[in-house]
Design a protein that fits this description.
- The protein has 278 residues and is mainly α.
- The chain is built from 14 helices and no strands.
- It has one domain.
- 74% of the residues lie in helices and 0% in strands.
- The two termini are 22 Å apart.
């Protein structure tokens, strides 16, 4: 049974990690529906480690961009005359990652503890849906990825910190911030994906290094965790490809309605005692 649950959670992680619907929120909800203790160290570690699959997926999908940015970064450091747009973009990713890295590490016990509450998820789903709706309404979408600047990187990086709250969504936060800054949907989505790489690597790597014993003795064990990670890799890759095509011609409004609907359903389940908040 634990392998079936791991398979389901791997699919959910892969589908939701890069869509603006909150992977942590969905995993918390489904884990509760399966009767798991979301506050248990083993479940917390499992939830973080299966993100490694999504990390590998986004690295594979954006491999050429990653190589381009890394090469441009070191080339620009070595020779200031060769500091081009790719060099600047590499710095944008670095700058945009610093806030969430600092705050995420400082509040890691709060994030994996008190915030793993389904009422928090319900409120975050609804509140950030309003933010996403407003971002779509005021967005000018007049600038592409090549027109990004330092202010964009700082603003998107700071807003990304809200994604540490289960229910907000990393992509929901960063895409909204990009739209507020006047970026088009594709540019906002691409920078969202690029910013996710160092953040997810840090979170998943930290948990893998510090919580290996917790996973070994958990409900899933390393076997179930490995299955969920592999499944999340495949599904996340497909989700990335689909979302980039989708935002070329469509707004993110469909995700807003889904988020609100999910929040209502979970709120009803909580209010009627079908599931508990923690």
């Amino acid at each position: 049974m634990n392998f079936i649950v791991a398979l389901v959670l791997g699919i959910i992680e892969g589908v939701t990690e890069f869509l603006p619907v909150s992977s942590t929120g969905h995993l918390t909800i489904v884990e509760k529906l399966f009767g798991l203790d979301v506050a248990a160290p083993g479940i917390t570690a499992f939830t973080a480690i299966i993100q490694v699959g999504a990390i590998i997926a986004v690295i594979i999908y954006f491999w050429r961009d990653i190589v381009r940015l890394v090469a441009a970064f070191f080339r620009g450091l070595a020779n200031p005359a060769k500091r081009d747009q790719s060099y600047r973009e590499a710095w944008f990713v670095i700058i945009g990652t610093i806030p969430v890295g600092v705050i995420g590490f400082a509040l890691r016990h709060v994030i994996s503890g008190p915030l793993r509450n389904l009422w928090v998820v319900v409120v975050a789903l609804i509140v950030w849906s309003a933010v996403m709706w407003f971002a779509e309404r005021v967005a000018t979408r007049q600038r592409g990825e090549q027109q990004m600047n330092w202010v964009d990187a700082v603003v998107i990086g700071l807003v990304q910190c809200f994604s540490l709250i289960p229910g907000v969504s990393r992509s929901g936060a960063t895409i909204s911030a990009g739209l507020f800054r006047g970026l088009d949907r594709v540019a906002a989505t691409r920078i969202s994906f690029l910013l996710s790489i160092p953040a997810l690597v840090a979170a998943g790597g930290f948990e893998a290094l510090t919580s290996a014993s917790d996973v070994s003795s958990s409900y899933f064990g390393w076997g179930g965790t490995a299955i969920a990670t592999i499944v999340s890799l495949v599904v996340a890759y497909l989700s990335i490809a689909w979302l980039l095509r989708y935002v070329q011609k469509h707004p993110i409004s469909v995700f807003i309605w889904y988020r609100v609907g999910a929040a209502v359903v979970v709120g009803v389940l909580l209010a009627t005692g079908v599931i508990t908040a923690v």
